[in-house]
Specification:
The protein is an alpha/beta fold. The chain has two domains: about 270 residues, Ribonuclease Z/Hydroxyacylglutathione hydrolase-like (Metallo-beta-lactamase, Chain A); about 150 residues, Metallo-hydrolase/oxidoreductase (Rossmann fold), CATH 3.40.50. Helix content is about 25%, strand content about 25%. The longest helix is centred in the middle third of the chain and has 14 residues. The chain starts with 10 loop residues before the first strand and ends with a strand. Keywords: Exonuclease, Hydrolase, Metal-binding, Nuclease, RNA-binding, Zinc.
Amino acid sequence: MELLVPTRNDLWFLPLGGTGEIGMNLNLYGHDGQWLMVDCGVSFNEPIDENSARTHELVCADPSFIAQQRHRLAGIVITHAHEDHIGALPFLWRRFQAPVYTTPFTAEILRRKLAQVGLLGEVEIHELSMGSQFRVGCFDLQWVTLTHSIPEPSGLMIETPAGNVFHTGDWKIDHSPVIGERFSPAVLTTLRQRNVQALVCDSTNALKFGHSVSEYDCYKALLEVIKDESGRVVVGCFSSNIARLVSLANIAKETGRYLALIGRSLQNMVSAARVAGYWPEDAPLIDSSHLGYLPANEVLAVATGSQGEPRAMLNRLARDDCFDLTLEKGDLVLFSAMIIPGNEMAIERLVSAFKAQGIRTLQSHDIDQPIHVSGHPYADELTAMYDWVRPQVAIPTHGEPEHMAANAQIAKEAHVPRQLTGLNGDLFTIAPEVGVRKGVVSARRMAIARN
């Protein structure tokens, strides 16, 4: 493997995961003999080789390139607590042994993950409040507060003597996000004066026209559906979407139901939200063991397994193998989550299992109301971002090739002078010259074995 060492005149972007795919983000920035890692995530139930039919529960980018020169790794920055940005770090950290920098909620999630693998207390964690400015090695950094589907989503302004980059992380424009600060373009327009050479930008929804829907509109849609139900209602959603869980807690109060969480990841995430101050004191939860004693019209439960995961709670409910709750004919299972590409068959099997028992299901494509909303920007939001920041170069990431191509076209139409597209393992040179060197690093995947 070629040993790449950036000089003081260089500013490089090297994605090892998350560019050319959605998931398992692992990004490197290089300058003056040092590297900065931004995010270290996983994907679920995927092969490690495109020619293999065998899937693995947890898959991440092969970090060998940076592990072999870890003395040059100044630090690891985690932009937010979604699994595709943080999930691999507890398993890979021993290969890096570098300090970690993140925000308070994400730090709380990270500490819990580190405890599970016996690393709590060994990892140096720098907990930095939203909007903080900080230095990691030769990189001057600043959190840029954005909105997404989890608390404390932060873009990252990266400044070096060779040039400056704005790394968006995951984001959308949400003026009513249910929890956290509402989106404000003010800080983004100030970046214009800081000479942003490159904007490395989320491409997930670049193929979708218009503007993403607010989390508050999702709350209203869920309320409209649930208030008319007479039986039990079970909602499948991502455990990390604290805003969605808060919305469901409020809906429970408004509809005379009791809310319970079924699944350890949900309970752990809400516990972390309480510690970090994101769970309202007036949003009560009941223990899931109490659900079986309630009348059907007072039950509102949230369960893990919205992607059809065989061992998660929705599948156990479909098999009548959930100790805390049994569903009956006429009850409703509502999917308030996107279908991650590749999970279509698993979800279809799950839905069929419920329907075979007379249990009704509702997915976002079954209804015009937004019972799920995305946490990523549509085309009009990308156009706005390019107009606010006005970079010299657009580097689409966090998407499959067609998403990144669409993002590049949006940047071109927004009058960004240069657009660079590539894949994991390509070296994007931002300074002193702009370009892409293809396939400089072998971008392999590896399976993670849980203890």
